[in-house]
Specification:
The two termini are 21 Å apart. This protein has six helices and six strands. 30% of the residues are buried. It has helices spanning 14-23, 45-54, 69-78, 81-91, 96-106, 125-135, and strands spanning 2-8, 28-31, 58-61, 111-115, 139-144, 150-151. The chain is α/β, with parallel strands linked by helices and 154 residues long.
């Protein structure tokens, strides 16, 4: 069974983050933020891509997997995670070609989805990984922490 990894960088240093990826032999880091900017040093697109390259990991920004701005903006206003989740899941069929591509690559490459949130249960990467699992019964998701441990997703 192939594995698709996810990892949030919240609470992590760049060095810890890269160490976790290297320990799991990740070959491709897939940034699923719509806008890959961060106030956290080393985690904006250019810096993260350079650090990954130095560590022997390919960096790819798939902006198509970012949560659409209207959904994010509504969540910022109302803080309603259930509504955010419902709207993001309804959005997934719009990007089915990208989900299919991710699934096909995850069968042959060690890929990890990255976003900010440490807990996958409060991040849209959870729903991307679930969509991949639903598409391919030969892929299971492994959610990592900044300490390299796995966490369960709901």
């Amino acid at each position: 069974m192939a594995e698709l990894f996810t990892l949030g960088y919240e609470g992590s240093t760049l060095q810890q983050f890269l160490k976790v990826l290297q320990a799991r032999e990740i070959s491709v880091l897939v940034d699923v933020r719509e806008t890959p900017l961060s106030r956290k040093p080393g985690f904006s697109k250019s810096a993260l891509a350079a650090a990954c390259e130095k560590a022997g990991i390919a960096y790819e920004h798939w902006c198509v997997f970012g949560c659409p701005r209207p959904i994010r903006d509504a969540y910022k206003i109302n803080g309603d995670w259930a509504s955010y989740t419902k709207k993001f899941i309804q959005h997934l069929p719009n990007i089915s070609d990208s989900i299919e591509l991710l699934a096909s690559r995850a069968l042959v490459e060690r890929m990890c989805l990255v976003c900010f949130e440490a807990d996958p249960n409060t991040c849209h990467r959870l729903y991307i990984s679930k969509a991949v699992e639903e598409l391919s019964k030969h892929i299971q998701t492994v959610h990592l922490t900044s300490k390299g441990l796995t966490v369960l997703a709901r």
